[in-house]
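Supplementary Text 2. Reproducibility record for the structural model of the 300-residue chain.

All settings were left at their defaults, and a single model was retained for analysis rather than an ensemble. We include the record here because the model underlies the residue-level annotations in Supplementary Table 4.
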Amino acid sequence: MNHWDDMRVFLAVARAEGLSAAAPGLKMDPSTLGRRVARLERAMGGALFVKSPQGYQLTDLGVRIRDSAAQAEVHLTRALHEGQEASAALTGQIRIGAPDGAANFLLPQVCAAIQRDNPDLEVQILALPRVVNLSRREADMAITVSPPQAGQLTVQKIVDYQLHLAMRADQPEPRSVADLKTHQIVGYIPDMIFDKELDYLGAIGAGGVQLASNSVAVQLQMIRQAGVGIVHDFALPFAPELRRVLTEHVSLQRAFYLVRHTTDRHSDRLNRFADALRRGLQEEVVRLERTARLTASPLI
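Retained model, structure tokens:
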């Protein structure tokens, strides 16, 4: 039995919380994964997952094995890449966790540019409406909107970015924040705001939300239909029918941070990728925000 190969399957199923979700990344069918998990459970002498229609949840034994296996994966990956550390090109797989604003409007073009320069590199973007858990190795690095205060993590600020109220340019513009009461407000589902920095409407004292989503990409599509809401300036070039409004009254600034596990600080491969990612994000935010300003309505 190839124990490490089975552990690789186990980690993928644990992270995806199901066989079907894990199958594409492993290039195996779900039934094969199920047999591999069962074989590993027999070898471990106990159940690793509680199986239900909602997915695969780890047992206590599974949690203990996952944490040990994740650390082993880190060291094995580092060993496999030692030979390529001095290489001019990056290879292998790197996964980035990010909030969906960055994942939708920034990372696709930034990661595509990095991958073009490193054709043997596979870049994966994990877009989640929550903080990515690096300790569980859900990703190799994460972009956050607040610097984490706990954990064995290294944090680097990437870039500041701007947000403003926006709405369709063919709709009557509110003249004051008080006028927002006469418009449909678009924003986050209040009880699903996972970071205080995402409480945009609370920061400006807005009332209830008539159209809500836990995704800023969905919120942008809602605003394209009707209503007014906070939009990242770097997202506005993707929605040319929108215009910023009340810019003299409402202007927010937030920042992105690059978060990595401290055990990766000596990996030349991940350091080089992180440097390229940080530079690319800085340049892309500047480019898109400049485009948003240049194409802004004269009424703004």
